[in-house]
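Review form for a predicted model. The reviewer records the input and the model, then writes brief findings.
Reviewer: anonymous (R2)
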Amino acid sequence: MAENRDYLIELDAAIGDADHGANMDRGFRAVREKLPGLADTDIGAVLKATGMTLVSTVGGAGGPLYGTFFLQAGMKTTGKTELDLAGWTEAFQAAVEGVVQRGKARPGDKTMVDALLPAVSALQNACQQNTPLPQALQESAEASRQGMEATIPLVARKGRASYLGERSAGHQDPGATSSFLILKAAAETWSGS
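Model under review:
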């Protein structure tokens, strides 16, 4: 998020209040500060701590939505110290379902959901095909990128961007972009798994 702070601010300035990049950067910096204290805990504890940190440090809708994402994933991974593709897919699907429920967004609303749902589908397909985890993560990130880019022509129906009506068309959604960035980072981080 630090590397993409200004880019997210630029995207949000066009259709929002220009704070998404700063909020996401602040939130993930706070998460990074907490991670050393969680080194000996399970995956669920790390994800739950991430979610709580984002809720308390990320402003706007991003805090509750990304907090929900990580909290839901954490609940599915409690007690686990390793995840295979099926476990990651189950946790990721629960995380996205939590975001959908909290934000009440549907595909085509021009939100982070437009980047997350294709990623879930890609992971589910990868599970059915017995795809190796690194490849599945790459496919998930690619599906998310395509979903993010598909927000450009959409008219926003949720969030601050919806206040612009038709003028929101032609702009990439910042939340879909930060969602893609998270999935891209996961794919890059675990590419050797």
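Findings: The domain at 5-189 is CATH 1.25.40.340 (Serine Threonine Protein Phosphatase 5, Tetratricopeptide repeat).
Further findings: Residues 85-103 form the longest helix (19 residues).
Recommendation: see findings above.
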